[in-house]
Every structure is written in structure tokens, then in C-alpha cells.
Amino acid sequence: MDLRLDGKVALITGASRGIGAAMAAEFVAAGAQVMISSRKEPDLLSTAAAIEARFRDSTDARKVGVFAANAGDPDAAAACVAATLEQFGRLDILVNNAATNPYMGKMIEIDLPRLDKTYEVNLRGAFVWAQQAWQQYMAEHGGNIINISSIGGLSVETSIGHYNVTKAALLHLTRSLAKELAPGVRVNALCPGLVKTDMARALWESGEEAISQMIPLHRLGEPEDIAQAALFLASDASSWVTGTCIVVDGGMLL
Ligand SMILES: NC(=O)c1ccc[n+]([C@@H]2O[C@H](COP(=O)([O-])OP(=O)(O)OC[C@H]3O[C@@H](n4cnc5c(N)ncnc54)[C@H](OP(=O)(O)O)[C@@H]3O)[C@@H](O)[C@H]2O)c1
């Protein structure tokens, strides 16, 4: 399949590194203009420069937009969507990728500030960014929303229990919004398995070889594995797909 995004504009949260940065690079390579967002502007600027450098010698130079925003802050979401529209003139694809996991341990023992933070960024955040995209552009022009959930939203792992509750709820938010916003806006989710990024480092770094042997495809995920599935959902190749999730986990859930 030749998956192209020519003429499309995408906004990706949590895109200064890891899966978000890989999606940004994949989307730019497919022809999209991309706005990347996360909390730290210096990291965003260096990620944007690295993506732009790949196209420096081509006739088709790309400019990657950056906007620093905390995904849990509704005002920042509104401002970032507005900045995307101001810089690029449209917003076809929103990827709710930013997430946080400030607590590991028995879920029954979590303190309320960290519980609230997990919900604020991972669940309320995804809703608010979708609401802003809808209100400022997609209600009138249509669009495509991709929520990055997790296989933790489909299974039980109590050491990251609250994070997984937000990821399960994100899947239901995906289904509910897909029905409500159709036919103009498609809403889908991706459920990655264990991917080699900073966020999951505590889960894989000390035992990569042993964990790989427990995964049917015998390796951990790379950010690009998720980015390629995101490109499918972002492109017209998935034009009859809405309200569902794609599991990308090397068979780990099995
Ligand atoms: N890695 C895995 O194994 C795995 C598995 C399943 C699902 N996922 C999901 O995949 C997505 C991406 O995770 P990742 O593994 O790529 O993580 P990562 O490498 O740690 O990257 C996280 C990104 O999100 C940004 N970020 C963190 N908190 C933020 C906030 N409050 N507001 C805005 N941006 C924020 C970070 O930049 P700043 O710190 O500068 O803000 C960074 O750009 C997440 O939704 C995660 O839950 C990951």
C-alpha cells in the first residue's frame, strides 16, 4: 500500500520523542505538514530540526511546526489547535499521544494528586484536544482523530493499574466519539504493546532478552512499528474504519 497524506495537516501531542516523534517523521515522509507538541520547547525544536534535516536536500523541503503545551491543560490545548490553524490553515488529523504514568505500585495505595494527574493528562486531555479540534475546525471540515491507548487498556496489570484504567476508558471514548462525530470525523485508537521508549524503560530495560522470548514475534516494539499503524489510520486507506482499535504488540496479548 502506498499510504500518502499529501495536503493534510496533522497535530501530534507528546511528539518530542518516542512514539510521537516517530509518527511525526512518518507523517512528514508521507507528505503531511505536521505540528508537534509536548511540554518542553527545546526538545520540540531539536526533534523538528531532525525531521526537517531529512528533507533538506530534496526539492520538497518541509517545515515542522512546534508548540509547547501540557496535554492536561485545556487552555493550552485550545491555543495549540489555534496555532496549528494559523500556521498551516487546516487540521485534518489529531493524534492524542501524550500520556503520563506518575505512579507504579499497588493501585489501591495511590495518592489522589497522582491519580488526578493520570486522569487529567491521559483521559480528560485526549477529550479536550478532540473537543478543541472539533470546535475550531473538524465540525465544519471533517477530520480524523487517533487516540494512543495501550494493550494495558485491554488487560490487567496492577502495578500500572490507574494508567491502564485511563487507557481502557480512552478506548470507550474512542468508540463513543466515533459514533457521535460520524460521518465527518473518524475516531480510532492504537493499542501498542511494550515499545522501547523512555516511558516504558522501567518495564523493559533490565530484562529485554527474557521479555522478548515471551513475545510471539520475539522482540520489543520500536516507535516506528506504531507509527506505521498510525499512518494507516491517518490515511484514506482506512476510510471505512472508525470506532475501533488496532493492537500492535508482536502478539504479546496472546
Ligand atoms: N512505550 C510503550 O511501551 C507504550 C505502550 C503502550 C502505550 N504507550 C503510549 O504511547 C504514547 C507515547 O508514549 P512513549 O512511549 O512514546 O513515551 P515517551 O517516549 O516517554 O514520550 C512521551 C512524550 O510525551 C510528552 N509528554 C509527557 N507528558 C506530557 C504532558 N503532560 N503534556 C504534553 N506532553 C507530554 C513528552 O515530552 P515532555 O516530557 O517534554 O512533555 C514526550 O514527547 C503514550 O500515550 C503511551 O501511554 C506506550
From TrEMBL:
<protein>
    <submittedName>
        <fullName>Unannotated protein</fullName>
    </submittedName>
</protein>
<comment type="similarity">
    <text>Belongs to the short-chain dehydrogenases/reductases (SDR) family.</text>
</comment>
<dbReference type="InterPro" id="IPR020904">
    <property type="entry name" value="Sc_DH/Rdtase_CS"/>
</dbReference>
<dbReference type="InterPro" id="IPR036291">
    <property type="entry name" value="NAD(P)-bd_dom_sf"/>
</dbReference>
<dbReference type="Pfam" id="PF13561">
    <property type="entry name" value="adh_short_C2"/>
</dbReference>
<dbReference type="InterPro" id="IPR002347">
    <property type="entry name" value="SDR_fam"/>
</dbReference>
